[in-house]
Amino acid sequence: MGSHGKENNQKAPYVEEVILRGHIIDSLILPRVFDVIMDLGGDFEVEEIQVGRSKVEPSFARLRVLAWDAEQMRRMIAALQGLGAELVHSQDVRTEPAPVDGAAPDDFYSTTNLPTEVRMHGEWVPVEGTEMDLVIVVDWDKKRAFTRPLAELRRGDPVVVGHSGIRVHPLEREREVEVFSFMRSEVSSERPNRVAIHLVADEMRRIRDAGKRILFVVGPAVIHSGAGEYLARLIRMGYVNVLFGGNAIAVHDVENQLFGTSLGIDIKTGLPVPGGHAHHMRAINKIRQVGSLRAAVEQGILTAGVMYEAIRNNVELVLAGSIRDDGPIPDVITDVIEAQRAMRRALRDVEMAVMMATMLHSIATGNLLPAHVKVVVVDINPAVVTKLADRGSFQAAGLVTDAELFLRELCEELNG
User: Which of 23, 256, 267, 273 is in Cβ range 3.0-4.6 Å of 172 for a Cys bridge?
Assistant: First the structure.
């Protein structure tokens, strides 16, 4: 099998052998490998293939990958490693020192969010802190490897370069029925959401009972739509351990509690309130007067709502600011690099992320999550789910519906 990139009589000067192991056929990994090679203009030869004959027996394939220049081979191997391909003749991982603070060598390896190992002194070592779009730094003496953002590199750090000595473990299809598999198959407003919400609720119960943590990433539409009371209820029930958002979710939650409005619109009637356009600024000012959301709770200024319940129930709250923010509320982190660090710290033991009505925060959070974390994206716009998958959060499953309907039905399921 081969001759997919150039004419049959033209011999490719660059050759690498790779192997794939596991459920590479029923998880469609092997055909994706073929597609990647051909899409990048390369060629391949299947030298050996062994097909598992039962649900638990893995398959195996060994391929020769052919390229016509070094850059083409580099791009193909980088893409194939993301699918779990392993170089047959792999040596120890190569490193080069970071040339300056905050920058890597030119040929640095850019990580995926999949479990990754590097070969050090002849042994495969797991990379700690798996996350997409980072670099790998190694400690040769302690035989450890870590991911680092570019901005946190220091001159001289030994940064992994090239593609030798790197092994990635792709997510394979579960052998039993996977809870969210049908949700990932198609993003559609016509999908029966009640069935999906029932499965989400079951998974949330399982994760809570196992002592793991659930993250909610929410936008201000949760308050605008009148769904704040249901999110507050989920927090009281113990189903929200970490809460990510921006200045707006906090501002409009406080506005709702103090004035009964969100962006000046009465939450109960849906009608504008005279002078309501200033309510969000008055809400910000009240929190700034006392210094923090926690102080507002302790002083009896905030007595209900999402922020109140988050503080009372020790939810790990990270509010990341933007250039558009009014105020902001004092709890908002305005340094984006520090906000990233705070979000990373908050993600320990998170097994599930529910993202609602906030495209930018959802994408930002998706970039920080390892691939094993289950992700549910709820938005009235189906393109939001697609955008997450396009940016590497391929584990994202989506429901096309509004936040109020989703949260109300989720509370009903979890109360049942």
Answer: 23
